[in-house]
Design goal:
It is a single chain. This protein is of the alpha+beta class. Among the domains are: about 1-50; about 55-65 and about 675-755, conserved putative lor/sdh protein from methanococcus maripaludis s2 fold; about 65-115 and about 565-670, Elongation Factor Tu (Ef-tu), domain 3 (Beta Barrel), CATH 2.40.30.170; about 230-430. It has helices spanning about 1-15, 20-50, 115-140, 150-250, 260-270, 275-300, 305-310, 315-330, 330-365, 370-390, 390-410, 415-425, 430-485, 495-520, 525-565, 610, and strands at about 55-60, 60-65, 65-80, 80-85, 90-95, 100-105, 110, 570, 575-580, 595, 600-610, 620-625, 630-640, 645-655, 665-670, 675-680, 685, 695-705, 705-715, 715-720, 725-730, 735-740, 750-755. Strands 1, 17, 18, 19, 22 and 23 form a 6-stranded mixed beta sheet that branches. A hairpin with a 3-residue loop joins strand 20 and strand 21 (about 725-730). It starts with a helix and ends with a strand.
Length: about 750
């Protein structure tokens, strides 16, 4: 058993050196070509970007005022009119004046028909005669009163007045008692309301504290996974930094990584079960050696070597072990290492079992059957499959680590960054990123919830505090009134004014009745006084009739003067003939008007309801009459109410001068708003389908193409705007660049370039 056994042991322990396959060289060339192609496409993409990306003009917010210019047309009108008396029923013979005509005092305006005037004068003479007769009748109708005894009636009136006085006193006392009851009820009600408000306020404080503490607890719970994920990401980034430092400081040159599929290698080396046992075992061992070499390469400094002798690892291997821990997690990593070791041990035992079987056949001089060889091969291949499946994730990670390590030692910074991103994505996969995003969104939601909860409870507590303050004021007032009642210092005058007025009236009536009784007892004096009073009344009636007689006499005199003037009516003053509502041959009905202006003028115009808010009494108006280039400066002296058409009439007093009554003139008013802290160009304002105003702001974003400019949406609340500028409320800062125009349509998220003038 000596030489054959020694030969087999040497064969098993021999280090196998596989030749470098041509497939590896081809893969290397393809990889280099791929990176060159990617570089070329990147250059072409950036060149295309410079053409396709929208060019935009931007502006920034500033503090300023809004400027308004109101303009339109109005009319110049006379402000003072003098009316000419017209005689109803008189016929107009001719009209000489025209409305709007400038006239002098004494100019002929129109002429009455003389026959009609004679008829009116005749009626006036008859009315004058009737008034004269009535005056004479009034002078003859004076009589003296007969004396009468009114003492009994006066005594009855006195007793009634005294009874009314007693009732008024009772009413006053009842009113005071009612006030006392109301004050007592108000005090009780105010006390109850104050107690309820106090309890509500204290409850609101307790509920606020409980709700906010609960919200803070939920926020703390939401912060824990975010902190955990942040810590895990920081540890991962630290492990990758340590790996890069270890690669840079290592004297070992890492090979260009090429993926290998060991199962394919096993299939390619499938054994011929009919060959001799020695040759079969030799091929079997070569396959095992090849996979052992692969495992040694794959797990150098990783799971298997760490599990076997972590204290003896070099810096590079330790860095890889640290990354494996980040990949699996501390406990999962240890479990995985044990499973790897267990699978390797099973593979070794299968090989040893085959060796013992093979040696046993040598000792007996027998040979292995094809079935034995096939069973051995199936067992061994199943163990290969299990180990290969178990190390699938490790192969991916090891490949990414090797690619990154090789890039650190041999590639450019861009390729290093690309391999780093691939490795980081493998370690920090999309699932984990979603978990981090979900945790961050939950944290943000909880922060908003806590802020809203705090705001809502602050308003609730503030409302409860106001109610408590109001209830306390009412309670103090009711208590003060009650104390005044107890101290007999309460002033009833305001609340018993009506009852006291009635009492005072009853007292005066009683006094008047007593006086009337005294007057009745002095009957002669009363009769004399009554006669004297009647005489005075008759005298007043005569004086009234005398005045009416005089007025009619003056009217008749004016009519006779008009007849003497042949019915001609002249302008009483110089000015503009404003109204001449007469027609030749027509009769005066009483509704017509004839008037002249006294040469005082005003400018009248109308503005829309939304423009009225910009105007105030005293504002300066520049008025330009038609056919004139020179403006007249006036000041607004009245602003009317808004009518049913949504218009308001505004007037301004014109300075002294000559104007055309009813002529059209244009006006201009310049106004500015208060100072606003946030104003932006009006063309920057956009509106979405929900009628929400927003702007697009240019901000820098880090993407796979590098740092690029992106259009971001920011909602704004438009406070006021003029023709070019809008005052807004927003979350923007003074350095934010707001898009005001673009050479193509853009939306939120689009890439842009700022147009350079």
């Amino acid at each position: 058993m000596g030489k054959p056994l020694e030969y087999m042991i040497n064969l098993l322990t021999k280090e196998h050196q596989p030749e470098k396959s041509s497939l590896q060289a081809l893969a290397k060339r393809l990889l280099i070509g791929f990176f060159v192609l990617m570089l070329l496409l990147t250059v072409l993409s950036r060149a295309a970007d410079s053409v396709t990306v929208a060019k935009v003009r931007v502006s920034r917010m500033k503090s300023s005022v809004l400027n308004y210019e109101l303009s339109g047309d109005g009319t110049i009108e006379a402000e003072t009119e003098e009316y000419i008396k017209l005689y109803e029923g008189a016929r107009i013979q001719s009209i000489e004046g025209k409305p709007g005509q400038s006239v002098k005092e004494g100019d002929l305006l129109f002429t009455y028909d003389l026959q009609e005037l004679e008829a009116i004068a005749e009626d006036l003479r008859n009315e004058y005669t009737i008034l004269q007769l009535n005056y004479k009748i009034g002078r003859l109708s004076k009589e003296t009163l007969e004396s009468a005894n009114n003492e009994e009636a006066a005594e009855i009136a006195l007793r009634r007045a005294e009874f009314d006085l007693a009732l008024a006193k009772k009413d006053l006392d009842a009113a005071k008692n009612k006030i006392n009851e109301n004050i007592s009820d108000r005090l009780e009600t105010a006390k109850e309301n104050y107690t309820i408000a106090k309890e509500a306020y204290e409850t609101a404080l307790e509920d606020r504290e409980y709700a906010i503490n609960k919200g803070k607890l939920e926020l703390t719970k939401a912060e824990e996974p975010v902190e955990k994920y942040n810590k895990a990401r920081q540890e991962l980034e630290q492990a990758l930094r340590e790996y890069r430092q270890a690669v840079q400081s290592s004297s070992q040159k890492l090979p260009d990584p090429v993926e290998e599929d060991m199962l394919s290698s096993i299939d390619a080396a499938a054994l011929d079960l009919n060959i001799r046992d020695g040759d079969f075992y030799k091929s079997f061992v070569m396959i095992d050696d090849s996979y052992r070499s692969f495992l040694n390469t794959l797990f150098t400094g990783s799971v298997s070597s760490y599990a076997e002798a972590s204290s003896e690892l070099d810096a590079l291997s330790k860095a890889k072990v640290s990354i494996y821990k980040q990949y699996y997690g501390e406990k999962e990593y240890e479990k995985h290492a044990k499973e790897i070791q267990k699978a390797k041990n099973a593979l070794e035992r299968a090989k040893e079992d085959y060796l013992l079987t093979f040696l046993a056949t040598i000792e007996t001089g027998a040979v292995l059957t094809s079935a034995q060889k096939a069973a051995c091969m199936r067992t061994y291949q199943d163990l290969y499959d299990s180990l290969n499946e178990l190390t699938e994730k490790d192969q991916k990670l090891n490949m990414a680590l090797s690619t990154y390590g090789y890039a650190i030692q041999n590639k450019s910074e861009a390729e290093i960054e690309a391999s780093y991103q691939a490795l980081f994505t493998l370690l920090y996969d999309e699932e984990k990123q979603k978990e981090v995003k979900t945790a961050q969104e939950l944290l943000t939601e909880k922060q908003k919830d806590l802020a809203k909860l705090t705001s809502d409870w602050d308003r609730t507590v503030e409302k409860a505090e106001r109610e408590l303050y109001k209830a306390r004021e009412e309670y103090d007032l009711a208590e003060e009134e009650n104390n005044q009642l107890l101290n007999k210092t309460y002033d009833y005058s305001e609340e018993t004014r009506s009852a006291e007025s009635q009492l005072e009236a009853a007292r005066r009536s009683a006094e008047d009745a007593a006086d009337a009784l005294e007057q009745a007892r002095a009957n002669d004096g009363k009769i004399q006084a009554a006669n004297q009073t009647k005489e005075e009344i008759d005298q007043l009636n005569l004086e009234i009739r005398e005045l009416e007689l005089k007025e009619k006499e003056e009217a008749l005199s004016r009519m006779e003067e008009l007849i003497d003037a042949q019915g001609k009516v002249f302008a009483p003053v110089s000015g503009i003939l404003l109204r001449l509502e007469l027609s030749a041959g027509g009769k005066v009905t009483g509704t017509e008007k004839v008037s002249l202006s006294k040469e005082d003028y005003g400018f009248h115009f109308k503005v829309r309801e939304k423009e009225v808010k910009y105007l105030a009494i005293g504002d300066e108006v520049i008025i330009t009459p038609q056919n004139s280039r020179k403006g007249i400066t006036a000041n607004i002296d009245s602003i009317g109410m808004v009518d049913s058409q949504g218009m308001s009439e505004v007037s301004a007093a014109l300075p002294q001068g000559e104007y055309g009554e009813g002529s059209i003139a244009s006006y201009t008013i310049y106004k500015h708003s208060k100072q606003y802290h946030q104003t932006i160009p009006l063309q920057a304002i956009r509106m979405d389908a929900n009628q929400v105003n927003y702007v697009l702001v240019v901000r820098e974003s880090n993407t796979s193409l590098g740092n690029v400019l992106i259009a971001y949406r920011v909602n704004v609340n438009v406070l006021e705007k003029d023709f070019s500028t809008a005052a807004v409320e927003s979350s923007m800062g003074s350095r934010d660049e707001i898009i005001i125009s673009s050479n193509k349509n853009i939306e939120e998220g689009d890439r842009v370039r700022i147009y350079e003038e």
